[in-house]
Amino acid sequence: MSSQIGRNIRVQVFGESHGPSIGVVIDGLPAGLAIDDKAIADQMARRAPGQSAQVTQRREADSPQFLSGLYRGHTTGSPLCAVIANTDTRSKDYAALTDLPRPSHADYNAAVKYGGYADMRGGGHFSGRLTAPLVLAGAICAGALRQRGIDVGAHLIQVGEVMAPALDPVAVTREDLDRLRQAPLGMADEAARQRVEDLLDDLRRQGDSVGGLVECAAIGLPQGLGEPMAAGVENRLSAALFTIPGLRGLAFGAGFAACAMRGSAHNDPYTLVDGRVQPASNHAGGVLGGITTGLPLISHTAFKPTPSIARPQASVRLSSLSPESLTISGRHDPCIAIRAVPVVEAVTAIVCLDLLFDKGGTYAT
Ligand SMILES: Cc1cc2nc3c(=O)[nH]c(=O)nc-3n(C[C@H](O)[C@H](O)[C@H](O)COP(=O)(O)O)c2cc1C
Ligand SMILES: C=C(O[C@@H]1CC(C(=O)O)=C[C@@H](OP(=O)(O)O)[C@H]1O)C(=O)O
Questions:
Q1: Is residue 362 included in any domain, yes or no?
Q2: In which residues is FMN bound (predicted)?
């Protein structure tokens, strides 16, 4: 299994959802970086399970214990290791699924690939639980970015058929991103959020789940990060974002809408702003030729509906190879995208810091 992202800042996650703990080793952080415990706790709480009626009811404190790489509130320059305990595991929910795999989860694929040895309780290493250490790593990297005037924020702009307004891809500010971080369900638009809450209530009654779309913006990035072709910003961000389970689609800037546009509408004309050459619009999403343009780096990530739903579904009993109906009990998110918001933000922060370190690694804390 490869559970590492980053080139200069290497983030390795480990653990299984129902093992004793999950965690992260971060290598390549500069020494002397102040660790803001409150900022980390806030980000962890945005993602944590059991925080509202609209998410999985598993309860975890998600308070990290640092084992190395941290001394007197600052990074030491050696690998930082942190563990997060798994306390509220209910493994009996998963006992029957070894022989009767859930459609669209990783149960059956893991059983075949790892010959039945993978610990799939709670989704094991495939679980959304493994995004907790990613958020921890992202919060640490975001602290380093903030010192350089760079901020990353994400929000939910679609759940099923409910849409919320997207950010202004040129003029998005740090205040906008702060506001998004405070928004319940990751959706700042109140009217849209109310419709999402109603939709989630309906889905709970129907035993169903729904997909969603997350928009993320990184602002304050200098022009010139990244390289062409295989080392492009999109390449590196894509590889990292696809570590998030349930992610099914990723687009930059105008994304798939670009295929229906004319060049005259899609092109971002250059203008002069305070004597500097700058694109006047941002259909490019802040990246051209694999290199940042200096405008906000905008991504859209599409999440599938949660696979574990309460409705009866067709599966196959593996021991007898007979078709059987499966009804899943247990605690599940009705919409993965809601708790994926801070995860997308975290992974984007990790990659942005990683890109900054391409420049020779001379980051002054
Ligand atoms: C934050 C988060 C929470 C998730 N919660 C659940 C859940 O409660 N139930 C579930 O079946 N899948 C959940 N998933 C998705 C599964 O982990 C994922 O679909 C599965 O591991 C298969 O991976 P894939 O969808 O990337 O192919 C969650 C994913 C994330 C990122
Ligand atoms: C625990 C978390 O989410 C879990 C992600 C998940 C899955 O299949 O991805 C399934 C559920 O696990 P369990 O059955 O153990 O409650 C979620 O609760 C978390 O995000 O911290």
A1: no
A2: 125-127, 289, 304-308, 331
The rounded distance, in Å, linking the Cα atoms of 130 and 125 is 7
Pocket test for ligand 2, best of 129, 328, 338 (most atoms within 8 A of CB): 129
Cα(31) to centroid(ligand 1), Å: 35
CA pair distance 96, 116, nearest whole angstrom: 14
Average pLDDT over residues 156-167: 98
Domain hosting residue 350, numbered range: 4-356
Residue 140 pLDDT exceeds 50: yes
**Within a domain: residue 76?**
yes
Kindly report whether the global pTM for this prediction surpasses the value 0.95.
yes
Cα–Cα distances in Å, from 295 out to 88, 113, 218? 43, 43, 9
Token pair 């921890």 in the structure block, residue: 136
* 364: confidence class by pLDDT, cuts 50, 70, 90: very low
Report how far residue 140's alpha carbon sits from residue 63's, in angstroms, rounded to the nearest whole number: 14
**CA distances (Å), 40 to each of 8, 37, 58, 329, 337, in order?**
21, 5, 20, 32, 21
What ipTM does this complex have? 0.99
> Residue 357: which pLDDT band, with cuts at 50, 70 and 90?
very high
Would the annotation count 308 as a binding residue? yes
23 in Cβ contact with 14 (< 8 Å): yes
Protein residue with least CA distance to atom 21, ligand 2: 129
Q: Average pLDDT of 243-247?
A: 98
Annotated ligand binding at 361? The verdict is: no
- Whether residue 289 is annotated as binding a ligand: the answer is yes
Residue 15 CB burial class (10 angstroms; 0-12, 13-18, ≥19): buried
Does position 205 have pLDDT exceeding 60, yes or no?
A: yes
Tens digits of per-residue pLDDT, 173-182?
A: 999 999 999 9
The CATH number of the domain holding residue 126 is 3.60.150.10
Number of domains in the chain: 1
Residue 304 assigned as binding residue: yes
Q: Which of 18, 62, 127 to mutate to test the pocket of ligand 2 (most atoms within 8 A of CB)?
A: 127
Regarding the beta carbon of 300 and ligand 2, being less than 6 Å apart is answered no
Give the Cα separation of 300 and 286 in Å (integer): 13
Is 364 a member of any domain?
A: no
Q: Which atom of ligand 2 is nearest to the CA of 48?
A: 21
